[in-house]
Write a structure and sequence with these properties.
By secondary structure, the chain is α+β, with helices and mostly antiparallel strands. 13% of the residues lie in helices and 29% in strands. The chain has 2 domains: 11-42; 50-144, Thrombin, subunit H (Beta Barrel), CATH 2.40.10. It is elongated and about 90 Å long.
């Protein structure tokens, strides 16, 4: 049985040529940024437009986990979490953690890990406590969501445990 060859100008070769033309046209549109030929593919980042909070805005959270050491050489640490953020946090490693009881505010530790869950608007904070501070699961503590860079960070030492004015 003789095999039939497809003529160069047959319907199949023309369709293959049209597919190649369509593919290169779409690629050119994508590279050039011409959007009328393509649907909107990237949504705007809603969290990027959130405003920064005012300096001194407290974020209160409950301590939900405490541990002495997870691995050799580790130090005691505490973890807390809360939600309801409607601003963009500006929290960094080493920022101060405070506890306010009645009208007394004291420096109790420094941030060692922070995670912002942008979808739920929550913040998870892990911190190392200062020595001889009793911090229990269920305690309510707070951090400044946007510390003032002009004010020095609180340091631990004799007479240096004084936090900035309570909000």
């Amino acid at each position: 049985m003789a095999r039939s060859r497809v003529a160069p100008h047959s319907l199949c070769s023309r369709l293959a040529g049209l597919q190649w033309l369509l593919l290169t046209s779409l690629l050119a549109c994508a590279i050039s940024g011409w959007r009328p030929c393509l649907p909107e593919a990237v949504a705007a980042d809603a969290q990027a437009s959130l405003p920064l909070p005012a300096h001194g805005t407290p974020f209160y959270f409950e301590v939900i986990e405490s541990h002495d050491a997870r691995y050799p050489g580790d130090t005691p640490a505490h973890k807390g979490k809360d939600g309801g953020l409607s601003v963009r946090p500006n929290v960094a490693l080493g920022d101060a953690v405070y506890r306010t009881v009645d009208t007394s505010t004291e420096f109790i530790g420094k941030v060692t890990s922070v995670a912002w869950d942008r979808v739920s608007g929550s913040l998870t904070v892990e911190f190392d406590p200062v020595p001889v501070q009793r911090i229990a699961v269920g305690d309510e503590v707070w951090i400044d969501l946007n510390p003032d860079p002009a004010k020095p960070r609180t340091t631990v030492g004799p007479g240096k445990n004084t936090p900035p004015a309570a909000p």
